[in-house]
Amino acid sequence: xxxxxxxxxxxxxxxxxxxxxxLEKNCLKTFKKKGLNSxxxxxxxxxxxxxxxxxxxxxxxxxxxxxxxxxxxxVKGDTYHFEQIASECARGxxxxxxxxxxxxxxxxxxxxxxxxxxxxxxxTKENKGVEAALTALEMIKIISRI
Length: 146
Fold this sequence. Notes:
alpha/beta; Rossmann fold; 4-stranded parallel beta sheet; 5 helices; globular
């Protein structure tokens, strides 16, 4: 697949917005370095992480994207809610990836402290936004060869 044929969708949670925005920023910067233009990337923002899989599914059904990237942060509180949201979001995204045979790059960070998510979203080394972009491009390359 030619670089100019690639289309990427990013689905980000608006909850814990500062994390998602930093992940997006680093992801977009990486795509630009690799030669993608902003018109090849569409960003969709949803209220929270549990809403991500539905939007991912609607986008996958369109069959116009080469990969879909998900960003968000789920922070453990005092209840079981953290586990429910993290597990169901991950499960939903994986099911969609397999059903529609499209790479769904999952960077919804499930952490015990918001500070940990911010570190992963902003640091220079091992930045999850950068990793998401590189993983998407690698998966597109692999899938196009099969």
